[in-house]
Amino acid sequence: MQTSDVLDIFRSAGAVLEGHFILTSGLRSPTFLQKARVFMHADKTEVLCKALAEKIRAEVKGDIDYVVGPAIGGLIPAYETSRHLKVPAIWVEREQGTFRLRRFEIEKGARVVIVEDIVTTGLSIRETIACLRELGAEVVAAACIIDRSAGKTDVGVPLIALAEYEVPAYPADQLPPELAAIPAVKPGSRNI
Ligand SMILES: O=P(O)(O)OC[C@H]1O[C@H](OP(=O)(O)OP(=O)(O)O)[C@H](O)[C@@H]1O
Ligand SMILES: O=C(O)c1cc(=O)[nH]c(=O)[nH]1
Ligand SMILES: [Mg+2]
Q: How far, in Å, is the centroid of ligand 2 from the Cα of 90?
């Protein structure tokens, strides 16, 4: 599956939004990939996650014990990707801002692959890795549907992206005037 195919699916779902967005990292962007508008369609989600599962199987050597999705955005793609990988899917969710594995137990040494929706700075994946390593799990790879950094982000483990799509993002104090003129909205769930 090519990047253009992935973007066609996002566009067909009305998931490529234009405006002024506050990202989870605090960066600002004129473009937001509202993945929820894709994941509301099981058929579109299946196509994307089956392709991602195939890419994960091709790149990860050895067993995978769990797929782990960072809530909320990672829940649906992690579940659907795990269905194709035929391994269980679990998730981390924020407890007072910090990712925790609140509902599951995981064996020490378990080999896990993180499945995210979108990667911008990789911050959310690094936070997920920290949580899982504290529990003794081995994070063998991370994966995502779209990497907005187009391969520039280093999360400390191999990052398997179904598509790479570079989108501008700016520190809040370095906004171009056309972006500063638009009221900012924050679609994600961090700090809620
Ligand atoms: O690579 P990063 O800079 O961390 O950005 C990507 C993260 O941002 C979004 O999550 P967000 O915290 O906005 O909440 P959501 O999962 O509820 O959408 C997205 O789901 C990724 O988890
Ligand atoms: O960086 C983010 O927070 C982010 C960007 C994006 O395009 N979509 C998303 O859900 N989160
Ligand atoms: Mg998220």
A: 21
Nearest protein Cα to ligand 1, atom 3? 121
Which domains, and CATH codes, for the chain?
A: 3-180 (3.40.50.2020)
Q: Determine the pLDDT at residue 114.
A: 98
| Exposure b/e, 97-135, CB count within 10 A at least 16 = b | eebebeeeebeeebbbbbbbbbbbbbbbbbbbbebbeeb
* Assembly ipTM: 0.98
CB count within 10 Å of CB 53 equals 23
CB of 33 sitting under 6 A from ligand 2:
yes
Binding-site residues for 5-phospho-alpha-D-ribose 1-diphosphate sit at 116-124
pTM of whole model > 0.90?
yes
